[in-house]
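Quick log. Single chain, no ligands specified.
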Amino acid sequence: IKLLLIDLVITLDRSLKRQQLRSATTEDLLLRFFNMQKAPAVSANGLVTSFPPDAITGAKNIANDIQRIYEDYSLLYSNNYKEIRNIITDVGNASMTIDKIKLNRTVRDIEALYNESKTVDADNLRLKTLQSRLDNLLQ
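-> predicted structure:
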């Protein structure tokens, strides 16, 4: 953490050298360089990027749109899987000449592919995490 703080301080104030800051404790770095009185001064010098006032709202809207699109995709994907599985099953039930072993293997393979594709739920979790972080920023 201390090394990250030193990197942050050097990024904010290029006149400081890494050797000067190595002897300071983590608490000293936080108190000396990350206080509210210094923050406006650093920003006024143009060393900190300013964001538009509606940046958080814009980011939240983008996250909401991505979440909605993902939910629509998941529903469509699930419905397609169910329809394909039902079609294959119905064809097997309607025809007596189809090899039932191959048909069952096909259904199992499709089910395995569908279950493997559920790993994209990790992406959904990341989106929800982003959403909760944006909600916290707005509070």
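The chain has a mean pLDDT of 78.
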